[in-house]
Amino acid sequence: MSSEIDSSTLLSRASQLIDLARKAGADAADAVVVRSRSQSVSVRLGKVEGTESSESDDFSLRVFIGKRVASVSANPGFDLQALAERAVAMAKVSPEDPFACLADEASLAKSYPDLQLLDTTEVSSEMLREAGLAAEAAALAVKGVTNSSGAGASAGMGGLVLATSHGFEGSYMASRFGHSVSVIAGEGTGMERDYDFDSRLYYAELDDPAEIGRRARERVVKRINPRQVPTGKDVTVIFDPRVARGFVGHIAGAINGAAVARKSSFLRDRMGQQVLKSGLSISDDPLIVRGPSSRPFDGEGVSGERLVMIEDGVLKHWFLSTSTGRELGLQTNGRGVRGGTAVSPSSTNLALEPGDITPEELIRNVGNGFYVTELIGHGVNMITGEYSRGATGFWVENGELTFPVSEVTIASNLKEMFMRLTPANDIDRKFGVAAPTFAIEGMTLAGR
Fold first, then answer.
1. Counted domains in the chain
2. Are β-strands 232-239 and 369-376 bridged in parallel, bridged antiparallel, or unpaired?
3. Could you tell me the residue range of the domain that residue 133 belongs to?
4. Is 345 in the same domain as 395?
5. Is residue 54 located within the same domain as residue 192?
6. What are 239-254's pLDDT values in tens digits?
7. The whole model's pTM is what?
8. What is the spatial distance between Cα 38 and Cα 54, in angstroms, rounded to a whole number?
């Protein structure tokens, strides 16, 4: 295991690659290695369906000549000098990019904390197999659950090795373990599917596979014999945490500096203005110890800090990398992420901060409405904010969940939805995007 984690050899190769690029004519350069180790086992109906194991160290070199930039990638075993020379040759004939550059030396992390992201627990294929089988068996152990879509377990680690020509060298690794199961209830055209899962950095913190299976079977059995409901134009829709997290992802996309620079965000002209109800905030923190999306530095060597992106409903920050910040006339806030050979801004541990009432109180306060457990389709226009998604869930009458509902569409505009959102207090911060149950008033529901 220690040889898998030790990054000193990779750091040395990255530094050599930068030196060769400078000798070949680059003004500046950085080299990154994206590391990945994973194994997984999938089962269905008590039998192993597949096992997978993979590992990779993917090198990328980015070079700058004046305002020209080029990037190349390679797998281990490549010729360092040939790769450096190819990158420089590509940069010389590339069009100028006025915003591409390394992070300012003053913004580079001089030191960074141990965020306890790596669990070195050895998990065997047999342990993964047993976990998958246990989750599936628990999910099938009730009348009404008629079939399995499969279960699985996984273990792995990944990380980043980064060196730059202006003195930054750093690396980190993070582990990830997971259990999941998906099952079917009902027969024929009345079949319904649902699932449950858990994912953690530390193996010992994973939910028990049998508990995951139990939750999946409870979810799917409740969905049997769904109904349609009448169309309504002023419906309060309650988002279960599973779908609430995806909704908060839309907010993250709208305040991403890259989208703002491209003018493809409906919030691009709203900095310093009210975009959520007063009292609501969205935070982003890359430095949470054992956080699911924590990182000691970003893809450019910049250490980020906790930011309240939206504070008391007012938009305060964009997610910024160095180049995106320059394009907008701003400084990076340490949110640069390597994606292949490119760097783009992204969130880390993002959270819609919770409210003061329980989900049960929220539902009682709604009285009548629609509780969404699953969304279908991709009907979100991030330029205009128009929102239209297929949905399933449960009808709420007199403050209680009653019968299952399917084949409906919910619609509104994200700008209006943000201003009508009321959160509960049940946030679960084990996810990189965390959100509590919340209700949104005044949506259109298209039913029968």
1. 3
2. parallel
3. 2-219
4. no
5. yes
6. 999 999 999 999 999 9
7. 0.94
8. 5
